[in-house]
Amino acid sequence: MHLLEVKNLKVHFPVKHGVLSRVRSHVKAVDDVSFSIAPGETLGLVGESGCGKTTLGRAIVRLLEPTAGSILFEGEDITGLQGADLRARRRKLQMIFQDPYGSLNPHMTIGEIIGEALDIHRLAENVVARQKRIEELLQAVGLDPAHAQRYPHEFSGGQRQRIGIARALAVEPKLIVCDEPVSALDVSVQAQIVNLLQNLQADRGIAYLFIAHDLAVVEHISRRVLVMYLGRAVELSDAKSAVRAPKHPYTQALLSAVPVVDPDSKRQRMILPGDVPSPIDPPGGCPFHPRCPVAEDRCRTEPPPLREVTPAHWAACHLAK
Amino acid sequence: MPLLEIKNLKLEFGSGEAAVRAVDDVSLSVGAGETVCLVGESGSGKSVTALSIARLAPSPPARYTGGEILLDGLDVLKMSKAELREIRGGVVSYVFQEPSASLNPVLRVGTQIREALKLHRHELPGEAGSPPPAVGPKANDGAHGVTRPTSKDFDGEVVRLLKLVGIPAAESRANDFPHQLSGGMQQRVMIAMALASEPKLLVADEPTTALDVTIQAQIIDLLRDLKRRLGMSILLITHNLGIVGDIADRVAVMYAGQIVEQAPARELLRRPLHPYTQGLMNSVPKLGAGTQRLRAVPGQVPRLDALPGGCRFHPRCAIAKPECSEKIPELVEVEPQRWVRCPFWK
What we know:
The structure holds 2 protein chains of 2 kinds.
Chain A: E1 4-17, E2 22-37, E3 42-46, H1 53-60, E4 68-73, E5 76-77, H2 83-90, E6 93-96, H3 110-120, H4 127-140, H5 157-169, E7 175-179, H6 187-204, E8 207-212, H7 215-221, E9 224-229, E10 232-238, H8 239-244, H9 249-257, H10 297-301, E11 307-310, E12 313-315
Parallel strand pairs in A: 3-8, 3-9, 6-7, 7-8
Antiparallel strand pairs in A: 1-2, 1-4, 4-5, 9-10, 10-12, 11-12
Helix pairs in contact in A: 3-4, 3-5
Chain B: E1 4-13, E2 20-30, E3 35-39, H1 46-52, E4 62-71, E5 74-75, H2 81-87, E6 92-95, H3 99-102, H4 109-120, E7 139-141, E8 146-148, H5 155-164, H6 170-173, H7 183-195, E9 201-205, H8 213-230, E10 233-238, H9 241-247, E11 250-255, E12 258-264, H10 265-270, H11 275-283, E13 332-335, E14 338-340
Parallel strand pairs in B: 3-10, 3-11, 6-9, 9-10
Antiparallel strand pairs in B: 1-2, 1-4, 4-5, 7-8, 11-12, 12-14, 13-14
Helix pairs in contact in B: 4-5, 4-7, 5-7
């Protein structure tokens, strides 16, 4: 059974205008996206800024209200849950944020930050058990348990990201939505966090939705990859074939734009013209057609559905083979 | 003689006991028409080094405590304020990381480029030596008795620069405000502005870090193309080793204020010699390499006010020996063109 199943999810934001704040149009941040995650699996979510990947992540944890579609967690529809029911579900569904500086309360010690999660979900029987649990969690993410009395500003970026991970782990979640967890970190520290996330997954069987713009990191950590462009899913496959044999021209371009360290690579560069169009008024037909090097007439009028091009490899392109 | 030669530069912030040395004995040269990359993590001193070239590091708190910076044969550290004003945005121009923070939000981009032109071009393009045509009223520069061109005369040049950096519909775009442009377009405007003075050296400090990968590829391509067409030199600051492979002729790696390795780019990427450079390269997952484990560098970048004794990398180094904590190793040329600050690099 799937741990998480997202069906035809839409998140639209109204664009208001004028004195009466009339809704003029909508930003279709996430438009009809479906996918699933199995227990203990990592699904990578890739795309450029403005493609809707963070909105999708937040909608799954129910930090944003979906406009349409459904989110099934362990077979139960959590789309409309409120209050205590939602809080009970959130215990299984945690999130790690991109900015390790902005996501920790500067007035709380890290012991309090992690302890708060235990208190809300009543996971510690008494003060002694609570303290012991905080120390265990700090140890699990590679921090010194004696540091529980310190404040976030006393830690480096990489250490703060570890604190954020410990806070998410405190409630023993089954799925963690990781929103660009390593983008703000120094290169030599990124690898430590990636390795830590992989160790925790191996030990505890946690599933990840790993959101990032760096394809190399996503390929490294994920079993399957979902590529988004302008709010739509354009490609979904296992990580290896997404990188070695991408079907969608956007994925191909994204891959060829990643600078490679190997000086001897004889890679064909494919540089996309133009910018990502505004999601308020996306191009008709295939949203990628104005930048696509192989676009045909029908791409301008007919939106391509996400279809299974080869077994278990899905792409939203009329021309994909 | 190279276009830029930095010799044993030392730069400190603060004074007395509290002084921290952000740049320690850095020597670096950039030849005419050459692209050099300066690579390092946050706090390595790469940006301060780049700012020092035009003495842009705010002083105080910064103090230049030693060394020389020769730009086009002139010592920048001995220049007067007037001379500095002349080289800033003149011989050397800068492009910074965050284009939206570098552009003035209340001025049209064309106006901002025109400002750079007015400051640094004393003659209209293509008319060196001949008097400017009689278009519009001329401001009279009394001191030298030379008639300088006015803003309007530069309209054509503004459009030419915008076209040069690949902005479509340049005539109408010149009238846009910065917020009307995307991040990639804003960075192109910054580059156009930097090119206004026809600089010999373009210093680009993380010019693509704030941009998406597909836009990053466009900007790197643009820089490479401009360098070839205009014959200028580029000093590019980055933390991304992939960009080094895409654009650099030579590369210097900085760690905690010091250069730890310097080499031709291809050779460094093929065979890094310093344990820190090796660690950096192993930390980055390679596309298509599958899911083998990353070999992370343990620990974290030291703070400048709490530097370890001896080699600054030794607490994180896999091959550190007891003597590494005693003495700072010298930067030694171990092979032709290859400099390494580690006695145990073999």
